[in-house]
Design brief:
This protein is mainly alpha-helical. It contains 6 helices and no strands. The protein has helices spanning 8-19, 24-29, 41-53, 62-65, 70-75, 84-90.
């Protein structure tokens, strides 16, 4: 596993927010009638948030910029970030 990330401050933020269940009230109130195959809809929305915070201007930038960053994904308590087409279908 890679232990290097270009987004260290964002990794610390993700570790703190997910560790304190910061998003739990939002996920509890959110009703998404989507099926879960590999990732829950909430996880995909979290991936979109992380991509915005990393400076992605479009979902097409997720695969080259965010998806390969395994250390950042682990900090956000995700095994890996979802692929851009999966995120687009969720939105």
């Amino acid at each position: 596993m890679s232990t290097e990330t270009n987004f260290a401050p964002l990794a610390v933020l993700g570790y703190c927010l997910t560790g304190t269940d910061f998003f739990h009230p939002l996920w509890r109130a959110l009703r998404l009638p989507l099926k879960t195959v590999a990732q829950a809809p909430e996880a995909k929305l979290l991936d979109v948030l992380v991509s915005i915070l990393t400076g992605c201007r479009a979902l097409s930038q997720v695969n080259p910029r965010v998806r390969p960053d395994v250390a950042l994904a682990r900090a956000w308590r995700r095994p890996a970030f979802a692929e851009q087409s999966t995120l687009a279908r969720t939105l």
